[in-house]
Amino acid sequence: MTSPYDALYRQSVEQPEAFWAEQARLIDWHQAPTQILDASRPPFCRWFVGGQTNLCHNAVDRHLAERGEQPALIAISTETGSERSYTFRELHAEVQRTAAMLLELGVRRGDRVLIYMPMIAEAAFAMLACARIGAIHCVVFGGFASGSLASRIEDAEPKVVVSADAGSRGGKVVPYKPLLDEAIRLSAHKPAAVLLYDRGLAAMELMAGRDHLAGAEGQKHAQARVPCTWLDATDISYTIYTSGTTGRPKGVQRDVGGYAVALAASMQHIFDGRAGETYFSTSDIGWVVGHSYIVYGPLIAGMATIMYEGLPTQGLDRQPDGGIWWRLVEKYKVTVMFSAPTAVRVLKKQDPALLRKYDLSSLRALFLAGEPLDEPTARWISEGLGVPIIDNYWQTESGWPIITLPVGVERRPAKFGSPGIAMYGYKVKIVHESTGEELTAPNEKGVVVIEGPTPPGFMQTVWRDDQRFVDTYWKSIPGQLVYSTFDWGIRDEDGYYYILGRTDDVINVAGHRLGTREIEEAISGHANVAEVAVVGVADALKGQVAMAFVVPRTGNAATDNADAMKLEGEIMKRVADDLGALARPARVRFVPGLPKTRSGKLLRRAIQAVCEQRDPGDLTTLDDPATLQAVRAAVAAG
Ligand code: AMP
Questions:
Q1: How remote is the C-alpha of 355 from its chain's centroid?
Q2: Are 523 and 489 contained in the same domain?
Q3: Number of domains, the chain
Q4: What does the alpha-carbon distance between residue 44 and residue 462 come to, in Å, rounded to a whole number?
Q5: Whose CA is nearest to atom 9 of ligand 1?
Q6: pTM of the entire structure?
């Protein structure tokens, strides 16, 4: 017998237009689409052609009549000890005020606005304000430093940057303004204006003519009425940068209508989130999860969304509290929660009694994503919470889950180690990496690919670089125009997928995606670095950490401990200053040479295997065995 989800899935891939036309009814349209899908220029897809809508209207305005006085955004900071709830009506006012400020600074439809903000409500106001007036937002994670920020400013060419005096992590204030000033100095493109929120955490030096304080500007526009601009469904809503194999980050570009429909559908079929309830995602607006499931998804569904700034182990009184998230679940009657395995591994070190201290009966499921979910972590949290733990696999590029369990449609048993089955709209396949042949037998390892047309919400292209989109994602499997996820995987006899790590040089630190090339570029800028290789190494808490192997230009770093410590410190600081603390390697090890093939290609995988005490595999292409021996010795030396 066909299950409800099997029927839904089949229709989504066999009759995508009929399926998505139905899903499109979940949102408000100013003008209904005339064509559901235009796939005439593969691999590009244009969804809901002719339709006009607006993400902000769907997230905010359309709820006013029915739930204007219900909570929409609950901003909590255990860093500053603040907690504030905005109703849909208050959110509507705040967003219009922010939109008015952007308009006054000259922002128009299609202009870019770069948002470099901590996890405060104003960051969401800024995103929604952009969506409202048809500006393209480009949110850059607040943990990134000047170098990362500069390359994004240069690529996005924002008219305005929205930022704040500082973020805070674990009680430590991180001033943003100096990082932003330095990034603008480094960038060839200079934004016309910078709008700054002053949280009173760090002093700011304002640049006359360019920098504007949101407090003063906002007062002028307190009663502003800014209507939603009706946008074409195929217009650009935002870009978000992500790492790949080259040092240059890619601007993943998304549309308006397809994204709104995809999120609305996922809130129903995947997350089972209902209007009037509360959604709590512990991610950050700097990541795709923050876009889809802190800001847009829950609000489109008419849910209140919690924005959380702080560690999972500190309370609102800024004292240690490993139960703060559960306290919030109880207080706000959270029904759907979304986090990452890393966060759960941090919580696992806390007293398990904390989980039983609160009334968590409102919670229906906990979704985890961003990195592989290991069995001990899954079991621990599943036993502790007593609700289904749903792993979900997706990427910045997809915008919403590719593989998970469709909790809103039917209950399927979870299998440890597997995020689940293919979601509707996704034709997921496993193919042989070099022949491109589809591997249909169960449990054969290959590359996880998606056959077009890609569903609504999926990236439209790489910002201003269609060729890069095609070449990077659609040309890596020989002889086939399929989208590569760059993940290894297998599918078992029941259709459950298992994700087995990246096929490229991307690493995943605490659920955050980093390109080893970017870290290598930051390190090789140090005057005393001749060569460098960065690899991702398994870590019990963070999933992976970056490990750097450096060939020093001069001095005795390879043998002299004091030299090595000094250089290691300098290199770590360089990476933190350039990319952010997240990218800082766990260790820098010094070697006289790096293992390479005869043609000069770095054997990162062999280095990684040595670090993880695994067999480095086939070494027939290794040019000089002494180099790998030196890596072994450096690792053994600790
Ligand atoms: P990002 O674009 O930062 O979300 O990173 C996407 C990558 O993270 C994927 O290509 C996978 O390598 C990894 N990833 C995300 N979710 C999962 C998951 N549930 N299980 C295993 N790997 C995951």
A1: 27
A2: no
A3: 3
A4: 11
A5: 395
A6: 0.94
